[in-house]
Amino acid sequence: MNENLFTSFITPMILGLPLVTLIVLFPSLLFPTSNRLVSNRFVTLQQWMLQLVSKQMMSIHNSKGQTWTLMLMSLILFIGSTNLLGLLPHSFTPTTQLSMNLGMAIPLWAGAVITGFRNKTKASLAHFLPQGTPTPLIPMLVIIETISLFIQPMALAVRLTANITAGHLLIHLIGGATLALMSISTTTALITFTILILLTILEFAVAMIQAYVFTLLVSLYLHDNT
Amino acid sequence: MASVVPLKEKKLLEVKLGELPSWILMRDFTPSGIAGAFQRGYYRYYNKYVNVKKGSIAGLSMVLAAYVFLNYCRSYKELKHERLRKYH
Asked: Which reaction does it catalyse (chain A) (predicted)?
């Protein structure tokens, strides 16, 4: 059971070739584009959903912040589809790998911070000191704010990794427990029910993306536009 | 009877069994040829099941079912040990 539990998280390779590239690229197949005004049901549904999400997310930004719309919409689509595909049996979820999430979090956060520093230097530096702090506390507070700034990309990446990995592990564990208890019965019904509930809650992995992009968004908003 | 249609232009189902090796060897295996094959396959599936007036969930589910199956094949080696047996 020990070795078995974590084998679903190793990078899939086939004869030494990286199969993980294909798995990462697979969700792009599920989002076809269409340049017609009235397209098929699939594309129409996706366009409607995308419009809903983009309106809800980008409305708080000014015109400069809204140039990030394409980036953020692709981000939410990618993370959402990858997490949902990972809920299928036997599939591999790329977002369980911390390397990948760091690769997404650090450049985006750095872009937002550097944009803020280049265009509104004074306002960005002013973020390090909340209004109305007593004078003796200022040095300590600046240090604390700097630490909290630099921990943002780490928090973004680790949050996503930990949530998805923990959910998958729990499903494996509880599923295994159910199978083991099948021969002993009585508690089986209860455990199976718990699995069902857990899976439903895990489908709020979609809410995970919401959390990811939203947090990123807040950071972008604060730094860029104030 | 010699074939009146040249081998190159025949579809796979029209090729006789004896001509099969030469037909396979004649296919375009350059990178652009392979890319073209994938593109043709993709559009064949897309136009048949998704890009229709009343597309149903079947178009998407078949893709996901194939994805699950391929992942099962990929991890069969580790799953072999989980079969129902008396002694593990």
From this structure: H(+)(in) = H(+)(out)
